[in-house]
């Protein structure tokens, strides 16, 4: 889906000693960022839905190909209803009959899905986060740990990436070019890359949702950070609000 990464682009490009690069470019009516590393991995994310547009990964022979579902044009991304690659919200999955209670208060949401004839609110309906235009807050190459989000430092990030001793719990998701990261050891390998100063390419998107937005209570400032590791070809996706 979409164009190939601009590996040698000049405008809007930051390149680090690790071989990672963050390349900002326009994509339809939104801004997008190519995250790239020296191992041949390239990931494109855009403001519409904070969506992963492309994941280009090398196979065992070094041949790079697209490994994610997507659309060919920005207009098709606007029209698709499968929530491909996007950040859904405020709620992911279905709420039966679009009704829920919180703190003794009852709330009614728009229903946009009817599996088995039961009306449901799915992925935030037509005002969901996946259909919104997020703001590209920052992008670049970080050389000493993950880039700060909303004033967070490296220690805060380490708290967010802790695992239980049995390795069963991940505070953020990792995707690798060959398989999904399933153990704390794989995450620790990527952590060592950062500790060595071998920086990741990153992009941070933000979205503000007011109290009552889409029928939901409470004000939310949501952020998502995509980070591409230099050598492990791992993509970290971290959520903050």
Strand-helix topology:
Elements lengths: L12 E3 L5 E7 L2 E7 L5 E5 L4 E8 L5 E3 L7 H6 L14 E3 L2 E4 L2 E4 L11 E3 L12 E8 L11 H7 L12 E4 L7 H12 L4 E10 L10 E9 L5 E7 L1
Antiparallel strand pairs: 1-2, 2-3, 3-4, 4-5, 5-6, 7-10, 8-9, 11-13, 12-15, 13-14, 14-15
Note down, in words, how this protein is organized.
With 241 residues, this protein is mainly β. It is 10% helix and 35% strand. It has three helices and 15 strands. It has a six-stranded antiparallel β-sheet with strand order 1-2-3-4-5-6, with no helix packed on it. Strands 11-13-14-15-12 form a five-stranded antiparallel β-sheet, covered by helices on one side. The protein has a two-stranded antiparallel ribbon with strand order 7-10. Strand 14 and strand 15 form a beta hairpin. The longest helix has 12 residues. The protein starts with 12 loop residues before the first strand and ends with a strand. About 16% of the residues have low confidence.
Q: In what range is the share of β-strand residues?
A: 35-45%
Number of strands: 15
Shape: elongated
What's the total helix number?
Answer: 3
Low-confidence stretches: 7-11, 151-183
Sheet/helix structural class: mainly beta
Percentage of residues in helical conformation = 10-25%
How confident overall, as mean pLDDT? 80
């Amino acid at each position: 889906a979409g164009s190939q990464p601009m590996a040698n682009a000049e405008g809007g490009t930051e390149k680090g000693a690790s071989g990672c690069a963050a390349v900002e470019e326009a994509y339809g009516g939104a801004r997008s960022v190519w995250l790239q590393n020296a191992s041949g991995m390239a990931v494109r994310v855009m403001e519409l839905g904070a969506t992963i547009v492309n994941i280009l990964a090398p196979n065992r022979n070094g041949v790079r190909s697209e490994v994610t579902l997507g659309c060919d044009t920005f207009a098709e991304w606007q029209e698709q209803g499968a929530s491909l690659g996007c950040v859904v919200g405020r709620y992911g999955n279905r709420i039966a009959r679009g009704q829920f209670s919180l703190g003794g208060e009852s709330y009614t949401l728009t229903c946009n899905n009817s599996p088995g004839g039961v009306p449901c609110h799915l992925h935030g309906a037509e005002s969901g986060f996946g259909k919104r235009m997020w703001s590209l807050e920052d992008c670049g190459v970080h050389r000493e740990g993950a880039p700060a989000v909303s004033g967070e430092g490296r220690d805060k990030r380490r708290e967010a990436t802790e695992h239980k001793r049995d390795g069963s719990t991940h505070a953020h998701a990792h995707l690798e070019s060959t398989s999904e990261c399933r153990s704390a050891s794989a995450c620790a390998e990527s952590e060592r890359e950062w500790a060595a100063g071998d920086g990741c390419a990153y992009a941070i998107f933000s979205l503000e949702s007011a109290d009552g937005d889409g029928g939901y209570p409470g004000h939310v400032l949501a952020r998502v950070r995509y980070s591409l590791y230099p050598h492990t070809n791992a993509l970290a996706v971290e959520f903050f609000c």
